[in-house]
Amino acid sequence: MRKSDFTGSLASVKASELSLSAATAGQALVGKVAGVQVMQTSGAPGEGVKIKVRGTNSLSASTTPLYVIDGYPASEDVYINPEDIETIDVLKDAASAAIYGSRGASGVVLITTKRGNSGKARIDYDYQFSMQQVERKIKLLDAYQYRDLVIEARNNSYRDKAEAAGKSWNPLDDNAIRASKGFNLNEVGISDLFFDFTTGKPVDPTYNTDWQDAIYGNAPMHRHNLSVTGGQDFLKYRFSLGYLDQDGIIAPSGHKRLNVRANVDAEVTKRLKVGVNFSFVDVSERQVQADGRYINDGVVQSALLMFPQFPVYNSDGTYAVGNQIAMKADGYQMVENPVALAHEIDIRNKSSRMNFNANITYDILKQLQFKANLGTQYYTSRYNYYRPRTVGQDGDMPNSDAVQARVKARDITNRDIDRLGEFTLNYNGEFGKHRLNALVGYTLQKKTYDRVAVEATGFPDDRIHEVTAHGPNASDIGLYSSDTRKAAWTMMSYLARVNYSFDNRYVVTGTVRTDGSSRFGKENRWGWFPSISLGWTISNEKFYQDLLGNNSSLKLRASWGLSGNNNIGNYEHTATMSQGGYVYGNTVETAYWQGTFKDAAIGWEKTSQYNVGFDLGLFNGRVNLIGNYYNSLSYDLLYDQPISSISGSSSVKTNLKNAKVRNSGVDFQIDGRILTGDFKWNVSANISVNRNKVVDLGGINDLYLVSERNVVSHVTRSGLPIGSFYGYIADGIISEKDYTNIMIDKSNLVNGKFPDGYQLIGPAVPNYNNIHPGDVKWRDVDKNGLITENDREILGNAYPDFTYGISTDFSYKNFDLRATFTGSQGAEVINFQKYYLYNMEGSGNQLASVLNRWHSDENPGSGGVFRAARSSTPNTSQRLSSYMVDDASYFRCANITLGYNFPVKWMQKVSVQALRLYVSVDNLFTLTDYEGYNPEVDYKGNNLLPGFDWGVYPLARTYSIGAKITF
Fold first, then answer.
1. What is the number of domains present in the chain?
2. Confidence of residue 645 (pLDDT cuts 50, 70, 90)
3. Among residues 154, 360, 630, 953, which is most buried (max CB within 10 A)?
4. Nearest-angstrom CA–CA distance, 480 and 470
5. Taking a C-beta distance cutoff of 8 angstroms, is the pair 282, 258 a contact?
6. Of 207, 233, 249, which one is at a domain's C-terminal end?
7. Inside any domain, residue 738
């Protein structure tokens, strides 16, 4: 089918437009494509991006687009070398993706790799050296500021308790006096690390450690690419070899990757053509546990909470471990040295992927072609984890009996095989002004999984990190059952497409595909996915040419399509059996019972989408504008519906009948050649607007989701976007006057309730026995005089009002300058790091913005919601609320590159065809009000918990210099 006959919504990026310094193909797409949100959520070495095409259309099934590499469907871009890519095409509407059937509901990313050309062999080699550093740090208190916060917090709590007990108090009372009054020192005591009671003065810190500087360092990256391209008319080839060695900004993390690719095309006879694609990827990684809570060894959160008073190393060069954990009894957070955590916990992952794909094309007739595409993909990986006794955890000191009991190793081995067979008949015919393309086909794909996960304990020492070095007891080694499985899925498909064009003006395309998936029950295993699209090239009409001439072009498009989603587990329709013991008399007999409850009728989740658009070219193609409006409705949503525990299960994966999610929006892209000649200037810009809404939940109640610390943070409710933020509204700070009025209200309580008709004098509070001046004031939404769960409100959502990208390139003779900018406006993030970093207890370090905290009515700070420092957090200050919700709007310079191409006549003198030198910077700057590392976050890939930041591996700013030479 000709490109001019295409009537769907398509975005294309050529190799020349991709970022040359990107480590992965996904990173090269940042800011390039309208209607596609490309998020860099992690800066870990080798980490890719999260791609979302036109919003979130499912509650629980994956919404990752389908990747198709040289005709072979894959679950992701599988570490394809960016240097091997010829083009990336994104199919955004259902009609375009309908030919891919069930897996096209979240869009399709088509990656075409470079192939051979006729002519003399050409050798290309490029080398790039990069230096990475953390793109931005979080502003925290230094040792002096933190010391003052701790002293203030402890003294405030001491005063509160003394006044409540009717006892005298003085901030210079030492810990013995405070304890003698019956108060817990883990709330009111002040460590001699911070205050010297003998002198009555704060202690000057011995150290003032910036723990972010300690864990984030300069990290080198080397990249080599070598390719050989050539051939003759009957045989063309391209062979490439790529190697990437990337250290992470958190040592010792690193990513080493070897890419091998061979593409060969042969014309065996006039009618028979054969193409062979082979690729091999080998990856070796050293990982650090950057994400997660500090007591679970989360390195990033540990660095943010660690006292600046402590050193990284002891005087003998060993890690200074256990210092803060030793203060557990004093009421401080039990944080371990993050540098030691990163280096001592040994996490490694090694994987390889080999893909072999052959396509055979035979011209039965001049207009009738048969094509077979056969492929196999082998994937193996091995993950190793070892936690030693040399670092403390969860309040237990290094080398303690408790930590030694938690020493463990894990070994997880994967072996996956993916096989594909695709057979099509394609007819192309032209009859005067009529052009017809028809395609019918059959596809069969099967993927098998084999995973074994072993966990071992009882290690006598830390010398050997393998599970084979486990202790002597039988219980010291066993299957890590939740990760051990042997599974498979199969999909069989029939497809047909007809494209008819008349006089290069009118085009109609109809597609139908039916997929049978083993992941669904027999009743609903097969799904039908039709589509139809229309196109009208108005600029080829005589009236248009008479009116506007031939200097512009205009094409109108409209389409409708139905696609499906089967991104769930492989056996959600099959109940499993459990085995155990049953006491029968005086013996225990083996018993079997149904262990899980399954819906045997589970079926396809479907998305119906309409799209209308236009393609406009002006000034003989110097300016091109593409616009689309779309409206999609997803229904029969897949979800784990709660069921009665009598069944033996708490939930069952099923289709929620009548449940619907709508995504609608517009996207525009404009490309222009502003200047030509010696000085050239090209500009490309795109903007996308998407609105997500739950139309109906199919009769089930609102979905309240718990994220971390057992806090309800999100709700999915009809009429709102999926995973809207949910919590309390902070209305400022309780002043001393407010407190006086609250005490008057408290005196009117009768058995914990106010008399009927009583009008509050002060603000409503959740607990009249635990309230102080300087605490957070909450909004009484239901106006009942008390702060309860019923006062929670919608606080925002993670969906931007719009996203945009701008690319520009200038060239003057042999110099060129390229820049790519990307941005998002209106999205919000739950910065749940504030659960600790804003708690004002002084039990761990805090954000620098708490310097603006409330001290008194005379010294109220910034007037925001920075409550007074207290070591014992009032029972409501850490609940999820509006003061944890941040604006995540940002504007980022994703890449800027300056290059120089040496004159050809110079290079020919030394037998070189071309030589290019360049320097570039990735993630040069990010303009945002967000207080975290990165406004783009993705919490565990959960659709119902979007926009939740709980500590991530920060992005790196990357400075690169490179050279590319062609022989």
1. 2
2. low
3. 154
4. 14
5. yes
6. 207
7. yes
